[in-house]
Write a structure and sequence with these properties.
heterotrimer; A alpha/beta (207); B alpha/beta (322); C alpha/beta (427); A: 207 residues; alpha/beta; 3-stranded antiparallel β-sheet; 8 strands; globular; C: 427 residues; Urease, subunit C, domain 1; TIM Barrel; 5-stranded parallel β-sheet; 12 helices; 29% helix
């Protein structure tokens, strides 16, 4: 089985992105079963349509790796509901992180803007987990170097709390109260072979 | 925050230091950086903010020095450049003392160009920062090889299985040494073509083929890399005249015509137009010479990022200090 | 007059049963088992190998000129620590030892230091410039009694000049010690030309540059019926040529250095200029060949080419560093490691290659004599059970550029006697 820790690793976390779970997965419990994950994405798609007046001018930018996948899923559902395609891209934040020097080496993810870019658009950043908020801060810095959106919003599949910066999400799939000793693992079929969200002990990934 | 934070430094001293995975990581990182910079409105990333990169050029090279400076600045590093002329370097200070000075300054990365083979290795023994070989004597020039590999992949989509022909003064070429090692690591088939006087004794042990006949090799080449031939070599009879060299080993319009449709022509610069390469070929559609220069900055950014960007360097070799 | 010593339980040439050796009045006075101490100072040396004091045909003492690297005093003390009782001091000093004044100065400094005898080598050509002969006869007639002449460090490459030198020194039984290096084939040379140099991008020093000069000089020596000595032979081709020359009856002798017996050009891979030397370290095949040559007598002697350099001349870029290695203190141990332990030479043969023959080649009286009653008490004691690790910081030499740093060597010189007086050893 493969799964991965959320990339938005929180305070003092050391795990690299998309690292497979190495501990005993039976120690983790599901907080979002596979069938519910799809329903949650559907709801988020509806909310985006509501809050953006039908999705006009919206650009979805996923934060690699799983944020990119979620942005694509969200875009597909929005198109299914509203009948019009949504420009989608990815925004790698590695080069903007403030914790690079505290960690091991990182390969860069893709930064891929849709044609038309982000200037004057309604950008929705998409990530799998919202934790300390540092990834989002890095994403805002990266976005600022790419253009000047009209509005920037944030969509996350899981908000696990423990913010270290004044950041909140506009669209939340599921609020999952966690302790700092715990870890959230988001799994998506495209990257991990199956869908699901697990809550496990912190040492699950680092074992 | 400097001096590599007490963690181990790794260095890029030889193209042979890079495993296949490491070499591909550099190329992939450069590709992502190119993408980011293409979209960016500011042309600069905050990644190496607060880090110091020292360019130590004991030998004149405007082009490589500028390329490294630009690469470090685009990653927001603080950049200090010493040229040989006008610095203590030209006043007889030993490499060791220069190294100790850099240590005291807290250099995180040191880019060194030197006329003696092995000087970057010597320097690495005395400093905590990561040393990047920007060309040492007739030894190696690993970032040139990386940017060449990047350019080939950009134009032809792959490196594995490509037939690369390197033509010219292999004996004195650090570019050739690094390219043979790196291209071999990346699965390309390299053939060296040169007059026998400009091939080193021992070349038969290198991971490549050797030929004296350019016309026989060209039709079977996907990539032709022309090396600069120095006029001063004539004075010591490496070849009789530049005219004869050009006739036997120059890439002129007639020879370029036998190349396959997709074959590309490279040159690390600076060129001797009309000697190793005809102007029409250098400026023609096969030529990658301009993109090689542009790619140089991106690839060097990737190298600096992978050596200095995190707590543990992602590429390179360790050297015992002392 | 030196005090009398009794060396107890030693093995002359490492052979036979232990004996006691009494040294008195500068000579070997008694050599027999069970000698009574009497008034002699006793040195317990049970099982140690007794050899005649070693003679080095090739030492750089650096004085005058580079006293920061070595002086006659420190160099000869290092020699004594290595078991040497005589060294030939090379002429490439500053000023060059190309006249009676300089050679007498070096000879006198050696006498004053008293650690071992110093036989100055005279430069073949004025200023080592390879253009005109020095006053070879005047140096031969001087107090220094010079018999060995060499431009070492540089080759007497002019064939005509070499011929004249070979001829001229016959008048006083001198010998030309040639540093065989064809200069045009070695412009800018940094290391052995071959696989390793191609990889390291260092300018090659091809074997042929040594071999061509040796072949030429052997033919010249035959033609003018002179004797020739070849310094630091480093290649298989050179050994082959010398073997052929000797078979033809040409009066040629040759030396090999300890470092060429042990190390290869792979040592250059880290660009550590400690391993830069001239002639350069060669390949394993060459190492095998010089070992064979030394074993079968094609190479007559081991000579150190002890070449001390300051750290600033060594801790620098390979190309900027000066060539040379220290060797006096490690020579015998390296020969033991490469030749004695593998069974290529006996200790008696070591005494021949490192004492008797070099003394004959250098026409050095009172050295290289057999271990026998009545002979001068120039002796070295070797503990064959005392393996040690080479520590440059512990060098007696003023310089630290030993290529054997950190290496474990199998035997150690425990005492050296010059005309019955101890010049090295404790207790």
């Amino acid at each position: 089985m493969t799964a991965a820790q959320s990339r938005d690793d929180g305070p003092g976390a050391r795990g690299a992105r998309a690292r497979p779970v190495t501990g005993d997965p039976s120690a983790a419990r599901p907080v979002l079963p596979p069938e519910q994950l799809a329903r949650v994405v559907d709801r988020m798609a509806h909310e985006v349509l509501e809050k953006t007046g039908g999705g006009d001018g919206v650009v979805l930018l996923g934060i690699p790796t799983r944020g990119t996948v979620l942005a694509q899923r969200l875009a597909a559902r929005i198109e299914a509901f509203a009948g019009a395609p949504v420009p989608t891209g990815s925004l790698d934040i590695t080069l903007y992180r403030d914790d690079l020097r505290l960690r091991g080496p990182r390969a860069l993810g893709a930064t891929d803007l849709p044609p038309g870019g982000v200037d004057d658009r309604h950008v929705v950043l998409v990530d799998d987990v919202l934790f300390s908020g540092r990834s989002v801060r890095a994403a805002l810095d990266a976005l600022g170097d790419l253009g000047r959106p009209r509005v920037v919003q944030l969509a996350v599949l899981v908000d696990r709390g423990h913010r270290e910066l004044p950041i909140r999400a506009d669209y939340v799939g599921r609020n999952v109260p966690t302790s700092l000793q715990e870890t959230i693992h988001v799994m998506l079929a495209e990257t991990d072979g199956r869908d699901g969200v697990l809550l496990g002990p912190a040492d699950l990934e680092r074992a | 925050m400097s001096g590599a934070g007490g963690s181990t430094s790794r260095h890029l001293l030889s193209a042979g230091d890079l495993s296949r995975d490491e070499a591909l990581l550099v190329l992939d990182t450069a590709a992502e950086l190119e993408q980011v910079l293409a979209s960016s409105t500011v042309g600069k990333l905050p990644t190496l903010r607060g880090r110091t990169v020292v360019n130590l050029f004991f030998e004149d090279s405007t082009r490589t020095k500028t390329s490294f400076e630009l690469a470090a600045k685009r990653l927001s590093a603080d950049v200090i450049s010493f040229a040989a002329k006008g610095s203590s370097v030209s006043k007889g200070e030993s490499l060791k003392d220069t190294a100790l000075t850099l240590e005291a300054m807290g250099a995180d990365g040191i880019v060194i160009r030197h006329s003696w083979s092995g000087a970057p290795v010597n320097l690495a023994h005395h400093v905590r920062g990561a040393v990047v070989n920007a060309g040492d004597g007739t030894h190696e020039h690993p970032t040139q090889a990386l940017l060449d590999a990047y350019t080939v992949r950009q134009r032809l989509g792959r490196l594995e299985g490509l037939r690369v022909t390197i033509v010219g003064d292999v004996l004195h070429s650090r570019v050739a040494r690094s390219n043979v090692l790196l291209l071999h690591t990346l699965g390309a088939e390299v053939t060296l073509v040169a007059p026998p006087t400009l091939l080193p004794v021992g070349v038969e042990t290198w991971p490549c083929a050797v030929s004296y006949d350019l016309d026989a090799v060209l039709p079977k080449s996907d990539v032709v890399m022309m090396l600069r031939v120095q006029r001063e070599r004539m004075g010591v009879s490496y070849f009789p005249s530049s005219r004869e060299y050009s006739r036997r080993y120059g890439l002129d319009v007639r020879r370029a015509a036998v190349l396959g449709d997709d074959a590309i022509v490279m040159h690390p610069g600076p060129m001797n137009r009309g000697i190793e390469i005809a102007p029409e070929v250098a400026d023609g559609p096969r030529s990658t010479i301009v993109s090689q220069v542009a790619n140089g900055v991106t690839v060097r950014m990737a190298v600096l990022y992978l050596l200095l960007g995190s707590a543990e360097p992602a590429i390179g070799v360790e050297v015992t200090r002392g | 007059m030196a005090e009398s010593w009794l060396l107890r339980g030693v093995l002359p040439y490492g052979e036979g049963a232990p004996v006691d050796v009494r040294l008195a009045d500068g000579r070997v006075a008694e050599l027999a088992p069970g000698l009574a101490p009497g008034s002699s100072r006793v040195l317990e040396a049970a099982g140690q190998v007794l050899l005649p004091g070693l003679v080095d045909l090739h030492t750089h003492l650096r004085e005058p000129g580079r006293e920061d690297a070595e002086t006659v005093e420190t160099g000869t003390r290092a020699a004594a620590a290595g078991g040497f009782t005589a060294v030939h001091a090379m002429a490439n000093t500053d000023p060059v030892a190309d006249n009676a004044g300089v050679v007498e100065q070096v000879w006198r400094l050696g006498r004053e230091a008293g650690h071992c005898d110093v036989a100055p080598v005279g430069a073949v050509t004025i200023g080592l410039r390879g253009e005109a002969l020095s006053e070879l006869g005047t140096m031969a007639d001087s107090a220094a009694r010079v018999r060995v002449f060499s431009d070492d460090g540089l080759c007497v490459s002019d064939a005509s000049l070499m011929r004249r030198a070979l001829e001229y020194v016959k008048a006083f039984d001198g010998v030309i010690a040639q540093h065989a290096q064809e200069p045009r084939l070695t412009v800018g040379a940094q290391m052995n030309e071959g696989v390793v140099s191609s990889r390291l991008g260092l300018t090659g020093w091809p074997s042929v540059a040594e071999e061509a000069v040796i072949a030429r000089d052997c033919l010249l020596a035959a033609h003018v019926r002179s004797r020739l000595h070849v310094c630091h032979v480093s290649t298989r081709g050179s050994v082959d040529i010398l073997r052929l020359a000797k078979a033809r009856g040409i009066d040629v002798t040759a030396e090999v250095t300890p470092h060429h017996l042990l190390l290869t050009d792979e040592a250059a891979c880290g660009y550590d200029a400690t391993f830069k030397v001239n002639p350069p370290l060669r390949t394993q095949d060459d190492v095998d060949a010089v070992r064979e040559g030394l074993a079968d007598g094609t190479l007559d002697v081991v000579a150190t080419d002890h070449a001390p350099h300051t750290s600033q001349d060594k801790e620098t870029e390979w190309g900027a560093a000066l060539p040379g290695m220290t060797g006096l203190e490690t020579a015998l141990a390296v020969v033991a490691e490469t030749m004695v332990l593998p069974g290529r030479l006996t200790w008696r043969q070591v005494a021949d290659r490192m004492s008797a023959r070099p003394a004959v080649i250098g026409r050095l009286e009172g050295h290289g004599r057999p271990l026998a009653v009545g002979e001068p008490a120039n002796l070295a004691l070797v503990d064959t059970g005392a393996a040690w690790t080479v520590d440059p910081a512990a060098s007696v030499s003023r310089s630290r550029n030993t290529p054997f740093a950190g290496r474990r060597l199998p035997v150690r010189v425990t005492a050296t006697f010059l005309r019955g007086a101890r010049t090295h050893g404790e207790g």
